[in-house]
Design goal:
9 helices, 5-stranded antiparallel sheet, elongated, 13 strands, 4-stranded antiparallel sheet, alpha+beta, single chain
C-alpha cells in the first residue's frame, strides 16, 4: 500500500522541514541541485494495525534476546567442559563452546535486529536537509539541537510504545550478564582452600622418596626427611596444588634441645614435622644444619630455627613455619593428629 492509496485526511501531517533547495543549471553551476525526492509515507505511518505488528515484531526480537541470554547462563552452568558433540560441517567440537557462542550470538543479533526494525518501521523517516554551518555553536543552534532532540525522542514513540520500551530494557539489562558470567572463568573460587590441606587426623606420614609409611625408627637424630600424606600420588589430578600445601619436612631433635613448649607437645619422641613451604615466597626448604637445627631456604636465605617453633631468625620471611601435630598409631606408624593450625605458604596473613 502506498501513500497515494490513502485518503489525504488519514495521512500524518507533514513536518515543516525543507527538502533542500532546488538549483537551476547555468554556466557557473552546470550540475544543479535537484533537491530531495518527495517523501513517501510508510504503511506503519498510515495504518495503526501495521504499526502494532511492527511493535510486536520488535518486542519478539527483544524477548528472544532475553531468552538467549538465559540460555547462555544455563549452558555455562549445566554443560560439562569436556563434553563434545558432532555438528555438521564443523565436526566434533566442544558442546560448551558451541552453546555459549550460539546463545550469545542470538542474544546480540536479536537486539540489533530489533533496534533496526524499530528504526525502519516506527521511528520518523522524514528526510531533513540542512545547510553547513560554522563549527562554533551559537545559542540559537543549541536551542535548535535541543528542540530536534526532543522532537526525535517524541517521534521514537518510546513513551507510547510501552511494550517495546519494556522488552528493550529487559534485553539490554540481561545481555551484560553474559560478560559477568564469563568472569567466573578467571580462576577457581578461593573459598577457604588456603586454610586447609590434605592432612587429617589419622593420615599416615609417607616418605617422599620411598613412598612408604614412616615409623619413628626411620627418623634418625640430625636427619632431614620429606613426607607427604598417604593416598597422594604424583599421577593424581591436582597433585602439584596439593603437595604445595601439604609437603612436610621431618627432623628428630633430642627432646631436651627443643625450646618451644608447644613444639615439644606436638612432637613424638623429639620427631617434629613442619611445613616445607617457605613463608616468604613459597620456595621448598631443603637445607638443614644438624648442629644448630636451622633450616635455610635456598631462594632468599630465610632461616628458621626448628628447635624453637621454626621461628624466623634471618631473612625476609614474615612468620614461622606452621607445625603439624603428629603421633603414632596402633601399628607403630607416624600419623597426623589434625591439619596445620594455620595456613601454609608465603605471607598469607599479610594478604588476608
Amino acid at each position: 500500500m502506498s501513500s497515494q492509496d490513502i485518503p489525504e485526511e488519514n495521512l500524518p501531517a507533514e513536518q515543516d522541514t525543507a527538502h533542500g533547495a532546488v538549483g537551476v543549471a547555468d554556466e557557473k553551476n552546470p550540475f544543479a541541485d535537484p533537491g530531495l525526492p518527495p517523501h513517501e509515507h510508510r504503511i506503519q505511518d498510515v495504518d495503526e494495525r501495521a504499526a502494532k505488528r511492527s511493535e510486536r515484531t520488535v518486542a519478539l526480537l527483544f524477548t528472544v534476546s532475553m531468552l538467549a541470554t538465559i540460555g547462555f547462563i544455563a549452558s555455562y552452568v549445566a554443560i560439562p567442559v569436556d563434553k563434545a558433540i558432532y555438528v555438521f560441517p564443523l565436526g566434533h567440537i566442544s558442546a560448551l563452546n558451541f552453546a555459549l557462542g550460539l546463545t550469545l550470538g542470538v542474544a546480540l543479533f536479536t537486539i540489533g535486529a530489533g533496534a533496526v526494525h524499530w528504526a525502519r518501521t516506527l521511528m520518523s523517516d522524514v528526510e531533513i536537509a540542512d545547510d553547513r554551518h560554522p563549527i562554533e555553536a551559537d545559542p540559537e543552534v543549541k536551542a535548535k539541537v535541543m528542540s530536534d532532540f526532543r522532537q526525535g525522542a517524541k517521534e521514537s514513540q518510546l513513551g507510547r510504545r510501552k511494550l517495546i520500551r519494556n522488552t528493550m530494557v529487559g534485553a539490554l539489562s540481561l545481555v551484560p550478564l553474559s560478560g559477568l558470567v564469563l568472569l567466573r572463568d578467571l580462576g577457581p573460587l578461593p573459598e577457604d582452600k588456603l586454610f586447609h590441606t590434605l592432612w587429617r587426623k589419622g593420615k599416615l606420614l609417607v616418605n617422599m622418596n620411598t613412598n612408604e609409611p614412616l615409623r619413628p625408627s626411620d627418623i634418625a637424630v640430625g636427619s632431614l626427611t620429606f613426607a607427604k600424606p598417604e593416598d597422594l600420588e604424583e599421577h593424581d589430578h591436582g597433585f602439584q596444588n596439593e603437595i604445595a600445601k601439604a609437603a612436610l619436612m621431618i627432623v628428630r631433635i633430642q627432646p631436651e634441645d627443643i625450646k618451644d613448649k608447644r613444639e615439644l607437645e606436638w612432637s613424638h619422641e623429639g620427631i617434629v614435622a613442619f611445613s616445607k613451604i617457605c613463608t616468604h615466597v613459597g620456595c621448598p626448604i631443603s637445607l638443614y644444619e644438624q648442629q644448630t637445627h636451622h633450616v635455610l631456604c635456598p631462594c632468599h636465605q630465610s632461616t628458621f630455627d626448628l628447635s624453637d617453633g621454626a621461628r624466623v631468625i634471618f631473612g625476609p620471611a614474615g612468620h614461622a613455619l606452621p607445625q603439624l601435630r603428629i603421633g603414632v598409631n596402633d601399628e607403630g606408624y607416624l600419623e597426623a593428629l589434625g591439619d596445620f593450625d594455620e595456613p601454609v605458604g608465603p605471607a598469607f596473613w599479610e594478604r588476608g
